[in-house]
Amino acid sequence: MGTMAGKYCKAAIGFLLNSFSNRRFFWICVILLSAWNMTTIFLLMKNRSDTDSTSIGVTTSYLSWINTFPAVSLCLSKNRITKEFSEAVKRRAANNQSPSYTYIRTLYDYLFINPNNLYLKEEYCKDLNSTCGVDILDMRKELFASSCTEFMEQIYFSEKLLPNCEEIFKFHELEMGYCFLANNLIDYPENQPYFNALSYTITSDPSVHSFNVEGIDNHHDVIDEPVSQRMCKFDTETNDNKVLYSFSSCMSEIRSEIEMKLCNCTLFNQSEQNPLKYCGVEGIVCLDKENLATKVKSYVGSNMVCLPSCMEQQISYVGSREKNFNEYGDSIMVEIEITSPPTARYFRAVTQTKLDLVVAIGGVIGLFTGASLLNILEIISMIFSKIRIMFKN
Fold first, then answer.
1. What's 25-52+353-392's CATH class?
2. pLDDT confidence bin for 261, thresholds 50/70/90
3. Which among 60, 92, 126, 285 would be 20 to 30 A from 230, CA to CA?
């Protein structure tokens, strides 16, 4: 076996020596090998430019930062049936008949309907119109607060009493119902509450909710990179000019589209609020049977249709605790605090621009051809000189 292997090795070496004795064949092999290496490196650089042109890092130079407070949203939620609501139902009863408790309870559930809670007893709305015998949107306007002054007594920010809550908490009608959003204190696009967002219930006990916040800073040229590379969107990158982009607004839009496809109605559409498209009792029962929330989350997760906002803060929940406050009497006190000032901030930067790609390609070509742009220009000049001499002769 050893003798046979030695013979094969000698034969291979002899073939190479004989082949490379021909200088033309030798240079053809060198050029082909160089071209193959150059093409491989070029493809690697092009792939990196297409898939990894941005990076996220962490900076700790927090002394120069201006920290922003995150958005705070208060949405009205269902509690006990009030006397005011019962009287409003009685005023709408046909032929001045006294409505049953089950009917009042059904309307109360309908009043607070949202994608997280689609429970409604359809049997108590038989022989009535599509919205259970009343104009449910009109009842909301009549019974729900549309100004924070109707339920907020005092509001403090940074331990300073603010004279008017309406300067902070703006009223919005959203998929989660009637909400009041404190977003004008921050520099980020309005991030609306949506069905899959984390929420915390306000109770009668004074409570403090603690969070930590980490911001993200984008270099000025990040917005010029394709969305597929940075995997996030800026607020202006939206299909609807009426609504700034955020993850929550995207989720709300997808939910509305899926509702229309499943049951031909919607609980809320941020672009077009058409009462005729609002879900009646049959529509809500349809959405409940179709398992709406699960289908929306599954669709968004599998298709990557809602990318995070490029300016979205990273908010982590620390915990909640009760606090002894006797000075407020029967009023409800809620405090939201940032546990500690952030000591780190994320930043998104472009690591490879188009110019970097051009320079890298030029370097690779120069490496494997042994020529620079000046050499190429000299060769072109020499060719033109030869042609000119030929024509003169």
1. mainly alpha
2. very high
3. 60
Domain ranges of the chain: 25-52+353-392
Q: How far apart are CA 219 and CA 230, in angstroms?
A: 12
Residue 94, class by beta-carbon neighbours within 10 Å (0-12 exposed, 13-18 middle, 19+ buried)?
exposed
CB atoms within 10 A of CB 6: 10
Give the tens place of pLDDT for each residue, 129-187: 888 888 988 999 999 999 999 988 888 888 888 888 888 888 888 888 888 988 643 33
Helices 23-51 and 2-20 meet at what angle, rounded to 10?
100
- Strand 170-174 with 160-161, pairing: unpaired
| Cα–Cα distance measured from residue 92 to residue 72, given in angstroms and rounded to the nearest whole number | 36
**Closest to 139 (Cα-Cα) out of 166, 169, 106:** 106
Tokens in use for 311? 């300016």
Length of the chain: 393
Bigger pLDDT: 287 vs 23: 287
Cα of 75 vs its chain's centroid, Å: 21
Tokens of 196: 């899959």
Distance CA 328, CA 138 (A): 34
**Residues 258/299, Cβ–Cβ less than 8 Å:** yes
Pair of tokens at residue 224: 């010029």
Q: DSSP assignment, residue 122?
A: G
